[in-house]
Specification:
The chain is mainly α. The protein is built from ten helices and two strands; from the N terminus they run H-H-H-H-H-H-H-E-E-H-H-H. Helix content is about 80%, strand content about 5%.
Amino acid sequence: MSIITTFPNIWLQVFLVGAWLGIILILAESLNRVAKVDPEISRKIVHIGTGNVILLAWWLEIPAWVGVAAGVLSAAIAVISYQLPILPSVNSVGRKSLGTFFYAVSIGTLIAWFWPLNQPQYAALGILIMAWGDGLAAVIGQNFGKHPYEVWGMKKSWEGSLTMCLVSYIICSLILLVVQGNIWQTWVVAIPVALAATALETLSKVGIDNLTVPLGSAALCFLLNVFI
């Protein structure tokens, strides 16, 4: 009986998450197809908006298998969209990148890792650092970056990297503050996590930062909180 009664709740959770993702995609596609905005802008709307779904999953206590299944499905859609122009707001960025695929893999992997441990905050931390840190770093760097530098042929800016580091620190410290309170570890642990996230974002190619940044940030924060 308990299994049967849980199904309505699961479907409600799936509906709410799907509705959020649908709203983000419709908004981005409308801007891309109708308003003809810069494809990078619509892509960042999807990048940041879909990342926030991890907060919804955390709040609703969505079962791990649902989150993992959603990650697998999203990864499959991403692979298809690389071959067919079904989601220009996601992939039309004028450069070779597997970022969308890695993003979906990251979400599924972090949920599979931290949900069973009853530590969803680390999954949320990793995804949100990628969503907001990388998303805002690109916006700031492209529009206000006056001090460029180059790593492995990739053009970066100090303004963008500083944004990545600052946003990563804010997200990490805020999540830890909510979970474990105003203790010294909350503010100190966020420092190496932010620096590591920035380094991973700077050194990653072809969109693999959508994998290395979330997994690296979450793993480092988890380990530091365990051993400090």
